[in-house]
TrEMBL record:
Gene3D superfamilies per record: 3.30.70.100
Organism this protein belongs to: Roseicella aquatilis
Residue intervals of the ABM domain: 2-96
A Pfam family per the record: ABM
InterPro entries listed in its UniProt record: ABM_dom, Dimeric_a/b-barrel, Heme-degrading_MO
Gene Ontology molecular function: monooxygenase activity
Entry keywords, A to Z: Monooxygenase, Oxidoreductase
Protein name from the UniProt record: Antibiotic biosynthesis monooxygenase
Length: 108
């Protein structure tokens, strides 16, 4: 399992527009082999920004890397940065290989 995260420092007052941008776009992720799930996470608010993270789970690092080279990736990111900047600086990417995963046991 591979988890890909991008952290965004969203400018104070731009949170609703940032969330609307993410929730209204077609990510095309459902068409990509190895995709498991996506979550947009909202974190703590600071004086000048609120922290957000896009969190995508993949079957493997190779599946994630294939996504970044795919037409689906280009379509999902078309127009990114085409509007006024909603976040402070570029997103910060973090990628993680799973060392241990403990699924919830099935109910008896």
């Amino acid at each position: 399992m591979f988890i890909a995260m991008n952290r965004f420092r969203v400018a104070t007052g731009s949170e609703a527009e940032f969330e609307r941008m993410w929730t209204s776009r077609d990510s095309h992720l459902h068409t990509v082999p190895g995709f498991v799930e996506f979550a947009l996470l909202k974190g703590p608010a600071r004086e000048d920004h609120t922290l957000y993270a896009s969190h995508t789970t993949w079957r493997s690092r190779a599946d994630f890397e294939a996504w970044t080279r795919s037409e689906a990736f280009r379509m999902a990111h078309r127009g990114a940065g085409g509007t006024k900047p909603l976040h402070l600086g570029p997103p910060e990417f973090e990628g993680f290989e799973a060392v241990q995963v403990l699924p919830r046991p099935a109910a008896d």
